[in-house]
Amino acid sequence: TLDINTHSKKPFRVMGKGLRSQWSGHLNIRNSFDSPKAVGALKLHSGNFHFAGKSFLITDGNLNFHEGTENPQTIDVIAELILDSITVKATLNGPLSSPKLNLESSPNMSLNAILAKIMFNRDIGEITPIESLQIGQVIIDMSEGRFSGELFGKLGKLKKNIGLDQVSVSNI
User: Fold this and answer.
1) What gap in Å lies between CA 68 and CA 145, rounded to an integer?
2) Which of 7, 90, 112, 166 is 20 to 30 A (C-alpha) from 141?
3) What is the pLDDT of residues 86-129, one digit of tens each?
């Protein structure tokens, strides 16, 4: 039987699915290793989100663990990448098991043009046909919830059932 209650004032690390970050908050994990239930909320302190070979600075973020809902674990993260000619805003939100990634830019550009800048540091009209195929694959991956190339025993079941891909404890 599990009954783990944590309240962290000091930040701890959360990593997975391209996310490297530090969070604090409270979390209660109870029930069993086979069927854990997590309830609580975590708030971002700092972090980066890796996408298409670039590191986005996370500016805001929340991880929420709800009891008795259709999506018990949710993520809501906003990150920014500043390139030579554009600023890209990435939002990652939804269920922790299948979050959606949305990209916007300033100045406003199409998703293809944003990805050309992120992936190749070139305008969409300057990329090769092979690079265009790579952009197309990234768009497909994004629509299917795969977006980092490294997407988020009894301990293994615990990790899977509460939506984590790695569990470790360390001092920061």
Assistant:
1) 24
2) 166
3) 999 988 888 877 788 889 999 999 999 999 998 888 899 998 88
Is the link from the previous residue into 129 a cis peptide, with omega within 30 of 0? no
Question: pTM for this structure?
Answer: 0.72
- Strands across the sheet containing 36-51: 2-16, 19-31, 36-51, 54-65, 73-82, 87-95, 100-106
Element (H, E) at 12: strand 2-16
- 75 Cβ neighbours under 8 A, 6+ residues apart: 61, 62, 63, 64, 92, 93, 94, 95, 96, 99, 152
Name which of 67, 63, 66, 139 is nearest 101 in CA terms. 139
Distance CA 163, CA 83 (A): 32
pLDDT in tens, 21-42: 898 999 888 888 787 788 899 8
Distances (CA, A) of 22 to 48, 58, 128: 9, 10, 38
Helix H or strand E encompassing 40: strand 36-51
